[in-house]
Design goal:
The chain has seven helices and ten strands. It is α+β, with helices and mostly antiparallel strands and about 325 residues long. A hairpin with a 5-residue loop joins strand 9 and strand 10. Helix 2 packs antiparallel against helix 5 and helix 6 crosses helix 7.
Length: about 325
């Protein structure tokens, strides 16, 4: 447990907020630091439509940002990557996996996913394009049957390396019998197959525990799905192949960003304490959603999703 009481709060902190059209707001590096020191704390906040947010403060090197922003980047379709040594390739894959897992987590939290859906087949889905077409057919069948829901789906290659199955985070009640019928048809069956004749199976489960709030349930589902996207990138990455699916109707609020005035890690925590209100910081600690690290790059991560019984006002 992190003891926040050791950080003394004194005086009001004035933040340098970036304009909405600033490159950093869209997650891009910039070369216009606010202060004189080479290393500066940068705070990015991803809010959610239903309340709550994720925030990450990172100590960045402005000289490194200068180099990145001045690189000549080709526009248009992404070209095939240049050949790299094994270590560099692994490092790039880890970065891609991190970004994809973050995006998947944010999408799951945005829809407050509360159930996990798993779609399997009897060694039928051996090709990735075939898998994608089957998923799209499945969703069209559900829509035609009047069953629609928001989802974040991640394909996973079976441990034998021969065929795929699909994990999806969804929100709300879904009729299992209808899901099974549509999945059988999507796989090429008639929809009435059962037992040994079934071409695949549908499993749906809720991760909610007795007395658990929906916000914590959503966090659990998001972590579960993010685990699969990370594994997919690291072990079975294919160039220009998207490793997750989500409807375009899911719109995340725009990311906001600001420079912090802190110079050291303790100062940054103190500033966040003032920025987000003591009660929210305490809730993040109780929920084990606050992480502070000095390994590699100093970073502070925190998440707050409002409790249905006693939501706190979000300081935006």
């Amino acid at each position: 447990m992190i003891n926040l009481d050791k950080f003394i709060i004194g005086g009001e902190v004035v933040h340098e907020t970036l304009p909405s059209d600033h490159p950093l707001v869209r997650g891009q590096p910039i070369n216009t630091p606010i202060y004189d020191q080479d290393y500066q704390w940068r705070l990015k906040i991803q809010a959610f439509t239903q309340g709550g947010f994720e925030a990450k403060a990172v100590l960045v090197n402005r000289n490194h940002l200068n180099r990145l922003v001045n690189l000549n980047r080709e526009r248009g379709k992404r070209p095939a990557p240049k050949e790299k040594d094994e270590e560099a390739t692994k490092r790039d894959l880890e970065k891609c996996a991190y970004r994809a897992a973050r995006r998947v987590r944010h999408l799951c939290l945005e829809i407050r996913a509360d159930r996990l859906l798993t779609l399997t087949s009897r060694n039928l889905l051996t090709d990735y394009d075939q898998l994608t077409a089957t998923w799209k057919r499945f969703m069209r069948l559900l829509e035609s049957a009047g069953e629609s829901f928001e989802y974040v789906a991640v394909p996973e290659l079976h441990k034998n390396g021969e065929h795929y199955h699909i994990h999806a985070a969804i929100n709300g009640f879904a009729r299992v019998e209808l899901l099974r019928k549509c999945w059988q048809i999507a796989l090429g069956g008639k929809g009435s197959e059962r037992g040994a004749d079934a071409l695949g199976n549908v499993d749906i489960k809720s991760t909610r525990r007795k007395g658990q709030h929906k916000s914590k349930q959503a966090i659990g589902v998001a972590k579960y799905i993010s685990k699969y996207i990370t594994k997919s990138y690291i072990e079975h990455h294919q160039f220009n192949r998207k490793r997750y699916w989500a409807p375009r109707s899911i719109k995340l609020p725009e990311t906001t960003a600001e420079w912090m005035q802190a110079e050291y890690l303790a100062d940054a925590v103190q500033e966040l304490y003032s920025r987000f209100d003591t009660a929210i910081m305490v809730e993040a600690v109780k929920d084990r959603s606050l992480y502070i690290t000095e390994a590699n790059v100093p970073m502070i991560f925190m998440r707050y999703l409002p409790n249905e019984e006693k939501p706190l006002p979000t300081p935006f």
